[in-house]
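If you are new to this repository, start here. Below is one unmodified record pulled from the training split, so you can see the exact layout before writing a loader.
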Amino acid sequence: QQSKPESDFEEIYFPRNTKIVKEILSHNSSVICLQEFWHENKELVKLYDQALCQAGYQTFNTPRTNGKADGLLMAVDTSMYEILSQQSVPFWDCGDRVAQMSHLASRSAPSDQVIVVNTHLLFPY
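And here is the target side for that same chain:
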């Protein structure tokens, strides 16, 4: 007997993701990078976007290539960093990998800049 995926049970995945969002926010990170983000589920995208935006983050979602249901989410605390540029990078390879790159400048010292890269790596299974 094949079991059904969690995505078939909103009563399981939605409360679990609500707890995940609360845990993420409890760490007060200046940048948050998530992989395996289920961008195809609009309710979950709304949950993450609303919670992160209310906490002062700007979010960027990048789906994997070839219509995959998951991808990346990057969230930047805009009180800490100015977003100078943001780019999604599709690799168009066998693993449908993608990356996100954000060029950020510190609000307290604008000459202090960093490039943050978030990627979805291939796992051969």
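Two things worth knowing about this chain: Strands lie at 31-37, 57-63, 71-77, 81-90, 98-106, 113-119. The longest helix spans residues 10-26.
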